[in-house]
Amino acid sequence: MSLSDNMTYTLPTWANETTVLSQKQLEQIKAYQISISILIYVLPVIIIMGTIGNILSFIIWMKRKLRRTSTFFYLAMLAISDTVFLLISGLKTWIRMWSYIELLHVSVFSCKVIIFIINSSLHISAWLIVAVTAERFLAVWFPLRANGMCSFRRVKIVTATIVTVFLLLNSHFFWTAELVSTDNPESPDKLECTSKMIKICVYFPWFNMVLFSVIPSVLLLILNLLIIFCLLKHRETLKSAMTKDDQHMRSIHRRLAVILLTISFVWIFTTVPNTLTSITKKSRKDLESLAEAILLRVLSYILLYINHAINFFLYCLTGRLFRIELKKLFCCKSQKKHRQIIVFKASNNDSAHPLMEQHKIQIVYKRSQ
User: Once rounded to an integer, what is the mean pLDDT over residues 44-51?
Assistant: First the structure.
């Protein structure tokens, strides 16, 4: 498989193998037909549903009463990055499969820009999830200092740093990406968008994979296990020894922890297969094994796209506050007798068991005017 396939996450070309084996015979094998059908018919559903879900998530998390909360701000930025990946990489892949037009090959400029955007959005999404998980870790393990360590100002700085770092790291594509001729039978225009970095450093694909998948996966696994351990440790705390504010805080932050734990573990589950198929690729000696390998590769790509499309549904499944805000978004306020206002205020400093950062959410009911 070519480097450009690794970087842009499209259907593998398997160039070296299909030049020897008959492409027409390959197309008659069931596994290969399933692979093509998945990309033509399933991928657009993922793109459409994921884009709509991400837009709704962004709207809800950026509501004035929510956006100044550090966790919700991270999730709003994650929705943007995920949408960019779906619309650029996913749509490009679907257009290629449906019309045989590869947008990477339109010009040298499109080759450079598309690879840059796709790689940047992948890295930013991964590290935003690491950042929000790290924020929850600090809130759980250092509740008395978390308010200062996870202030909204610092969250904006961390987000800006993540975006800036990965935009700069991937900016090399503007001078290393190039269109080259290829004998690949799956490329109608006989072109391939690749990078000179593979010539400069043979370990570049591995570095890219480690930065996107390996390090984030290890960090997420460690941080999540520590969060779970701390929550279970405090589970036996007697309610009679807790203030009313602490009980309220504990309930809210447990729900928030469930949302973030779900997102993190889903991210690991949907990205690791793509990494494993990248490092375990072997030469295939017959058409059947090649078709099966392509199917596994396509399934790993689909999981990757699902990762960038599924968060809205995870919020709906695990987030009570998100469901409330989503319902309010589509319901006419004039038909309600009461409306809910989310108020953020500091909890008492003399709290016996401050669970996370010293903020709580009060739901105040007011009559609509």
Answer: 96
List, in sequence order, the alpha helices (H) in the chain: 3-8, 15-18, 23-26, 30-37, 43-61, 70-85, 91-99, 108-141, 143-149, 152-169, 173-176, 197-200, 204-209, 215-233, 244-279, 287-307, 311-318, 320-330
Do the domain assignments include residue 275?
Answer: yes
DSSP 190-227: -EEEEETHHHH-TTHHHHHHIIIIIHHHHHHHHHHHHH
* Top-ranked range on mean pLDDT: pick from 22-36, 163-177, 244-258, 349-363: 163-177
DSSP letter (8 states) at residue 347: P
User: Distance between CA atoms of 285 and 306, rounded to whole angstroms?
Assistant: 31
pTM exceeding 0.85: no
Helix (H) or strand (E) holding 150: none
User: Is 345 contained in some domain?
Assistant: no
SS3 345: strand
Distance CA 105, CA 89 (A): 14
Instruction: Give the Cα separation of 201 and 359 in Å (integer).
Output: 48
Encode pLDDT of 103-157 as tens digits.
Answer: 888 888 989 999 999 999 999 999 999 999 998 888 777 766 666 667 778 888 9
| Residue 223, number of CB atoms within 10 A of its CB | 22
What is the per-residue burial (b if ≥16 Cβ within 10 Å, else e) of 265-281? ebbbebbebbbebbeee
- Average pLDDT taken over every residue of the chain: 77
Structural domains counted in the chain: 1
Give the separation between CA 323 and CA 316, rounded to whole angstroms: 6
CA distance 255 to 363: 15
Q: How far apart are CA 42 and CA 27, in angstroms?
A: 19
Which of 9-18, 71-80, 162-171, 264-273 has the least mean pLDDT? 9-18
User: What CATH number is given to the structural domain containing 276?
Assistant: 1.20.1070.10
Domain housing 292: 20-330
Rounded-to-integer distance, Cα 120 and Cα 204, Å: 15
Least reliable range by pLDDT among 161-165, 194-198, 200-204, 259-263: 200-204
Cα dihedral angle (250, 251, 256, 259), rounded to 10 degrees? 130
